[in-house]
Write a structure and sequence with these properties.
- By secondary structure, the protein is α+β, with helices and mostly antiparallel strands.
- It has helices at about 5-15, 80-95; strands spanning about 25-30, 40-55, 60-75, 105-115, 125-135, 140-145.
- The chain has one domain (about 5-145): STM4215-like (2-Layer Sandwich).
- It contains two helices and six strands.
């Protein structure tokens, strides 16, 4: 069975941010826990909530979908502000329009940093929340319309 468009979106974002200068190939999809120190700096891309509105009435209806995609970066170091801004900037450039994917529009909605100094070496997280707008038929969630 083919992947849903939501999974295609996640996988395309992983592809677009893999190979960035700072994080290289340390990019993972759908990891639940923070990255291990040996994977830092790195990214986790995971799907969030989705809203769906019917755009047409006759069956099969066309659905307008808005899916949150969290692109979460992890770094360690002494100047955590500089480190999170570095990887955040690289990812934002890689995901900036007119980049193509299974979406009609990919929009950065928020950036949320988090700093953790509880361990021996401080670690920071930067969460880039994107909204992917796309359309499917109600009976074909694996095909972008």
């Amino acid at each position: 069975m083919a992947d849903t468009v939501a999974l295609q979106i996640r996988d395309r974002i992983v592809e677009l941010i893999r190979g960035l200068d700072t994080t290289a190939d340390s990019v993972f999809a759908a990891v639940v826990y923070p990255l291990a120190r040996n994977a830092l700096p790195g990214w986790i891309v995971r799907l969030g909530a989705e809203t769906i509105e019917p755009a047409t009435a006759p069956a099969p209806r066309l659905f307008e979908r808005r899916r949150e995609v969290d692109v979460v970066g992890y770094v360690e170091g002494d100047d955590l502000d500089a480190a999170v801004e570095q990887i955040s900037g690289e990812a934002q450039r890689a995901l900036a329009m007119p980049v193509t994917g299974p979406w009609k529009l990919l929009t950065l909605r928020s950036i949320i940093p988090h700093f953790d100094s509880s361990s021996e070496r401080p670690v920071a997280e930067i969460a880039l929340r994107y909204e992917a707008f796309y359309m499917t038929r109600e009976n074909a969630p694996e095909v972008a319309a």
